[in-house]
Write a structure and sequence with these properties.
Blueprint: H1 2-16, H2 20-25, E1 30-35, H3 44-51, H4 54-57, E2 61-66, H5 70-79, E3 84-88, H6 90-97, E4 103-107, E5 115-119, E6 135-138, H7 144-155, E7 164-167, H8 172-179, E8 185-188, H9 192-198, E9 202-207, H10 211-218, E10 225-229, H11 231-236, H12 238-257, H13 260-266, H14 276-286, H15 298-311, H16 313-316, H17 329-337
Parallel strand pairs: 1-2, 1-3, 6-7, 6-8
Antiparallel strand pairs: 3-10, 4-10, 5-8, 5-9
Helix pairs in contact: 3-12, 7-15, 8-9, 9-14, 12-17
């Protein structure tokens, strides 16, 4: 079995042709990457790329810093302490409205994978309308989990000010917040949600782990996790940007073909929250959310814009040029070489 894995890995390296060439070409080898909740399945492509050694094979030395929530990792980029971010596509739209443009260069998630669920200890909250005046746990205020709740509130005649948002992170801290009764509802992702469901602690109200659930919530496809950076970084480091996109396209191709046991073998044990079987089920729930090729669609970008306009006054007041929020140029180049 081990020999087969080694042979398969070698075949992949040969097929992808990634390694030495990029190592000599990149403008910037040492990179700082920010993420908000690395153990979440939302960001699994990042961990897979890291654990399989794809960054190193592309000639990149990537230091990953986990800030616990997407808003904080965005701040790291804007503040200059990060070069690149794996975060929500939504931020590219929001930052253009603030005249601080950022650009997404590869799509990692085609469905958000976020679940809004009521906490069973809190009573019988069965709908969004019943959330008024309640405490809702999100990974971090200003993150994509927060945005989902904001949108659902506005669609149901309320505003984000009608509830209280509490940052609970995206791992054991989120599970603990539910079990201690600190929140009435939670917007989070797997494996957190699957863990809480298995323990009988929560009941989903809206679930975007599937195409059907995403359509029911947002009315169309919705881009989720992406790799984004500043236009200045892309302009100054085109070969580095291409190498990064190569890594993630290669990772998405691997994930698309991977079996559950392949994924479990490469992950650190702490990702399983003490239950590897449950994590395996959570991965199988989440696998359809990953992009198979890294491409963005205009339809998805328009859906995100529509959602953000519903509750973000700055976005609503700005004529957003969606063509500047993402580019497929690097992905298309990767796909010419990565099969």
């Amino acid at each position: 079995m081990r020999l087969k894995s080694v042979i398969a890995a070698a075949a992949v390296v040969l097929a992808f042709g990634i390694g030495g060439a990029n190592a000599q070409q990149v403008e910037k080898k040492d990179l700082k990457l920010a993420v908000g909740g690395k153990p979440l399945l939302y960001y699994l492509p990042l961990t897979v790329a890291e654990r399989l050694g794809y960054f190193k094979e592309a000639g990149l030395n990537v230091e990953i810093n986990d800030f616990g929530g997407g808003a904080k990792s965005l701040q790291a980029l804007i503040g200059g302490s990060a070069d690149i971010v794996t975060g929500a596509y939504d931020h590219t739209v929001q930052m253009q409205a603030k005249d601080q443009p950022i650009t997404a260069v590869v799509l990692l998630g085609r469905y958000p994978g976020i679940v809004l669920a009521s906490v069973n200890k809190a009573g019988t909250i069965k709908s969004v309308q019943e959330l008024k005046g309640k405490k809702i746990g999100v990974t971090a205020p200003g993150s994509s989990t927060n945005f989902m709740v904001n949108y659902l509130l506005t669609q149901n005649g309320m505003t984000p000010e009608d509830v209280s948002f509490i940052g609970v992170g995206g791992g054991p801290s989120a599970v603990a917040a539910v079990k201690r009764g600190e929140i009435d509802a939670i917007a989070n992702l797997d494996p957190v949600i699957s863990q809480l469901e298995a323990d009988g602690d929560v009941t989903p109200i809206a679930d975007t782990r599937t195409e059907k659930g995403t359509l029911e919530t947002y009315g169309g496809p919705y881009p989720a996790a992406v790799l984004y950076t500043t236009p200045a970084f892309i302009k100054e480091n085109p070969k580095t940007t291409q190498a990064l996109v190569d890594v993630f396209v290669r990772t998405l191709k691997w994930l698309d073909q991977a079996k559950t046991e392949d994924v479990l073998k490469i992950l650190p044990p702490e990702y399983f929250l003490g239950n590897q079987t449950l994590y395996a089920q959570a991965f199988e729930h989440s696998k359809p959310t990953y992009s198979p090729d890294g491409r963005f669609s205009q339809e998805g970008a328009e859906a995100a814009y529509k959602v953000l306009k519903a509750f973000d006054k700055a976005v609503a007041a700005t004529n957003i040029d969606l063509s500047k929020t993402y580019t497929n140029a690097y992905v298309e180049e990767s796909l010419k070489r990565i099969k």
